[in-house]
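Obj: model holo form, ligand = adenosine-5'-diphosphate.
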Amino acid sequence: MDYDYKVKTAAERAKVEDLFEYEGCKVGRGTYGHVYKAKSKASPDSKEYALKQIEGTGISMSACREIALLRELKHPNVISLQKVFLSHTDRKVWLLFEFAEHDLWHIIKFHRSAKANKKPVHIPRNMVKSLIFQILDGIHYLHANWVLHRDLKPANILVMGEGPERGRVKIADMGFARLFNSPLKPLADLDPVVVTFWYRAPELLLGARHYSKAIDIWAIGCIFAELLTSEPIFHCRQEDIKTSNPYHHDQLDRIFNVMGFPQEKDWEDIRKMPEHQTLMKDFKRSTYGNCNLMKYMEKHKVKSESKAFSLLQKLLTMDPTKRMTSELAMKDQYFLEDPVPSQDVFEGLPIPYPKREFISDDDNEDKSDNKNNANTNHSDQPPQKRVRVMPPVTTSSSNMVSGEFQVRKHVHNMQSGSQQQGMNFSSSNASQGSASSGYSRF
Ligand code: ADP
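Output (holo structure tokens):
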């Protein structure tokens, strides 16, 4: 590269530490990096941000391109990636997001503790309706733009605290499962396994090799049930999930215990699933003769004639081809019936949930949860710290045609003045990067 150009762009490049105050303000740690609550050093900007430092160094060309695309996503219920910093001295990648004070993992945890202390328990029913409507709205936007989330769960559903967007849902982590394929730590370094399969659709557990929109809808159904009951509907012990094999006997057993074993007529293509033979060998339909979703929800005081139950059933449909779409779900009677969903899920009432706490560098914010999780206590929440197992491959890139994103810009828009160096992070040129990275679009 031209030396003068290099010097010039290096001088112009914005550095994250010059622009943001974030030291000592770590609020979370995920599979792919550390998240800090940050404030801009520029005085008129008093907004709060979340700064995520990606574990490891460098970035592949295709990750670069994906980030540029994710930056184009704009919807009130999808967290917006505002800026990307490529720190050239240490080859670190930083992502800047809007800051959300709450998330459903903490909100549900709050209600579960209340339940344990025999105080009022459930999340208000209006709040559940507003939450689900906004989640569907955000997912509908992503799906309409051919972005699949692939990892929906309570921890990834953020809710804005006090401020102009009070009580608004922000779906986080979309597409990132595909972007950063190395976990925060090697698998062996982590506590007993922490991948959660609770929100995983049955077709994935039976070996489906392609992610689809229906997989996100199943996860929304699971979240809906959990909001209504404060219990993860498909809770399953997690100790033995240490494999890249998608087939998971115990998780399927749990699903059948709630839903019943699928009838051939209800899911004809189940016979075509890669793990169908194993399923037939391991399970007997008669074991689950007495089980169905209606019974499970009635047990948790959700009436089977309610509109909420009727929608839930359509989201938690075993056959992915019959599962409801987000678009149809948003038009469901449940949302037309009073009280209709509101923009502020807290409905103007005081927010009872605590704010995010800062954690120290060597703190493991949810260690106790992990510990609990490793035992057989069936009332646990999943840990937030996760290990990635090999995801099923995405469907072929041929589905991704130009123009599916509303606006496309080139990678050079990622960070003004630094595009050339950005590319060089992976020391590959554009065509090499996209061909060799192993990431595929859906
Ligand atoms: P990963 O995708 O690497 O697993 P996450 O994005 O889940 O990491 O983030 C880890 C933690 O940081 C979680 O506790 C999450 O709630 C918190 N977090 C993530 N994004 C934000 C945000 N925009 N605002 C506030 N907290 C966030």
